[in-house]
Design brief:
Blueprint: H1 3-19, E1 38-46, E2 49-58, E3 66-71, E4 74-83, E5 87-91, E6 97-103, E7 109-115, E8 124-131, E9 152-159, E10 167-174, E11 177-184, E12 187-188, E13 192-197, E14 200-205, E15 212-218, E16 224-230, E17 235-242, E18 267-269, E19 275-277, E20 287-293, H2 298-314, E21 319-327, H3 332-345, E22 351-357, H4 360-366, E23 378-382, E24 388-393, H5 402-420, H6 432-436
Parallel strand pairs: 20-21, 21-22
Antiparallel strand pairs: 1-2, 1-8, 2-3, 3-4, 4-5, 5-6, 6-7, 7-8, 9-10, 9-17, 10-11, 11-12, 11-13, 13-14, 14-15, 15-16, 16-17, 18-19, 20-23, 23-24
């Protein structure tokens, strides 16, 4: 099954699940309802909580329009596909999920955010959306004066059945408006947007993966407490203390090689099914960046957005990169579709391999040299001798400000050092062009 037919099948199946047995055929020249241009306010129903989000639609017709999710200063663009005369399908780019909606007679939208992953297609969140509303939580003129300004750095302690490492919140409040980002060992939350009303605050974010909402209270002693709801039936309580010195565990020290190991060894199929190994001539004598990723993982996407242009600029210096994708279905055919979308969307020129099912235990089993596997993504940097020189757990995105700048600087400084080192005399160094010509 080629990619086009695979995607079409997912679209039609999603509609069948959403709207019953009636499925509209794709029409190249439909005449029907349109999404009005401008800003919209949508609302998801997550468990028993409403999660608002904002988006903008631009385009005189659906076929040439752009759907843009708005989160603070962040913008994420998506393509809209018409399905019949009054329905639309908005694929969440490289995430295997979509918004499927009907354009109602009054111009509003109603539909679902639906997983497209085989075996998980029953997972969905209903939503509605109204045109012309640019607020997120509180209508203009109905704000309540906040009791405090919670701008700053907060250490958050979460309560769950499983032990959850503390997180750090970077918040910025201007009057009632609140924006921020949550840092954790696996990566950041991306930008969140919300409000402070009296002694209550709330933040939400929806950038393509499942929407999230943080609802909390400012306590009399200056602490905060609340609940995060993410996806479906996922609610976790937290307490927070303002602390300018709050920090996460050092991401360079969480994942490392077991005693006795200096090198990483693996063999996985690429997207054509060909086996690829670090021992291949292509990588000998090169500095190699190995990324453990998944297309379902937003921090992995952000890391790819960082690495792909960096690699395209620096490959000729003697660098190679490999992304090992662990996907939501243990199927090479499925991975060819999902990882292929990632490759095409972000112009990835380095090898992308399929590692297996997206499960931390599976990663640990397939990469036994690692002490443990903690987070998607994980970056492993290997020198010209084939020895692991650094492992970074998670990813620190641009929204984190100084943390991103520190990550970027350390990444570039280390790569400069490793690239400057001489390759072993017995290394067989061949260019990608030479190998392709074999």
């Amino acid at each position: 099954m080629n990619k086009s037919n695979f995607l079409k099948e997912l679209i039609l199946l999603s509609l069948a699940l959403l709207f019953g047995t009636t499925v509209w055929a794709l029409d190249k020249n439909p005449v029907g309802k349109v999404i009005r241009e401008g800003v919209w306010r949508g609302v998801f129903n997550v468990s028993e909580t409403q999660v608002p989000f904002n988006f903008e639609f631009k385009g005189k017709d659906l076929e040439h329009g752009t759907f843009t999710l708005l989160n603070g200063t962040r913008r994420d663009d998506f393509h809209v596909t018409r399905l019949g005369k009054d329905s639309v399908f908005i694929k969440m780019n490289t995430y295997d999920a979509a918004l499927v909606a009907k354009i109602e007679d009054d111009g509003t939208l109603s539909g679902e955010y639906r997983s497209l992953v085989p075996g998980f297609r029953g997972n969905s969140l209903p939503f509605t959306a109204e045109h012309g509303k640019n607020y997120r939580f509180v209508e203009p003129g109905k704000d309540v004066a906040p009791v405090a300004n919670i701008s700053g750095k907060w250490e958050l302690k979460f309560y769950s059945k499983e032990q959850v490492p503390n997180k750090v919140a970077l918040l910025k409040q201007n009057g009632n408006k609140l924006t921020g980002v949550i840092l954790q060992v696996t990566g950041d939350s991306r930008e969140l947007e919300g409000t402070v009303q009296g002694d209550e605050f709330v933040l939400s974010g929806f950038t393509g993966p499942s929407p999230k909402i943080y609802k909390g209270k400012i306590n009399a002693d200056g602490t905060i407490s609340g609940v995060i709801s993410a996806g479906i039936y996922d609610n976790t309580k937290f307490d927070g203390v303002k602390d300018d010195k709050a920090e996460l565990p050092d991401p360079y020290k969480l994942t490392f090689l077991k005693e006795g190991y200096k090198k990483l060894d693996f063999t996985f199929p690429d997207l054509t099914g060909k086996s690829v190994s670090l021992s291949d001539d292509k990588y000998k004598g090169k500095v190699v960046i190995v990324e453990i990723v998944g297309t379902w993982c937003p921090n992995c996407t952000d890391q790819t957005i960082f690495l792909s242009p960096w690699f395209n600029k620096n490959q000729k210096r003697g660098v190679e990169a490999i992304a090992i994708g662990f996907e939501q279905k243990d199927s090479l055919q499925y991975a060819q579709y999902t990882l292929g979308k990632l490759r095409d969307k972000y112009n990835v020129k380095y090898d992308i391999l399929f590692g297996g099912l997206a499960d931390k235990k599976v990663v640990s089993q397939k990469l036994p040299a690692l002490n443990k596997f903690i987070a998607f993504p994980t970056t492993i940097i290997i020198d010209r001798k084939g020895e692991v020189r650094e492992i970074y757990t998670g990813y620190t995105g641009t929204v984190t400000g100084k943390y991103y700048k520190e990550y970027e600087k350390k990444f570039n400084d280390l790569l400069d050092v490793l690239i400057a080192e001489e390759a072993p005399s017995n290394a067989s160094i061949k260019s990608a062009e030479t190998l392709k010509g074999k």
